[in-house]
Amino acid sequence: MAKSQAGRAEIRRIGQFGLVGALNTLIDFGLYNILTTPGRLSLVEANLISTTVAMIVSFFANRRLVFREHTGSFWRQVISFYLVTAFGLYVLQTGTIKLLTEWWPGPVSVAVTGAHLVGINHHDQFVIKNTAKLIGTIISLAWNYVTYKTVVFL
Questions:
Q1: Would you tell me which of 23, 39, 57, 67 could form a disulfide with 153, CB atoms 3.0–4.6 Å apart?
Q2: What is the pTM of this model?
């Protein structure tokens, strides 16, 4: 494949990955916010459930729509996808949520201040939990793209 064609194909794949990621993120954040309403689950428990559901959707969508040109066996892909994605979600993303909500709240405090400046008051917990999850999601998405391309869907 010519260099310019390969570049366009990669840009297209990144766009498709972004669309699949947007769908998964909507599923993930939707469940996360439902499960963390008062009296339900902790942030970490809710994140483990919401990310697991999104991970299942992600495997099939990425395999079928984004990384179509793969030669590995289905079960090798399932196992490597789970290991790679589980690390991204359960270690990187959940660790980021725990870090930013319990040990180092400075970055999410900036988001709360920003929300107050634009008139969003009395929703601090919503801003905190979703800012922490958003930062963790960005970290895990970067990890996922690189490892899906180089490890999972060969």
A1: 67
A2: 0.79
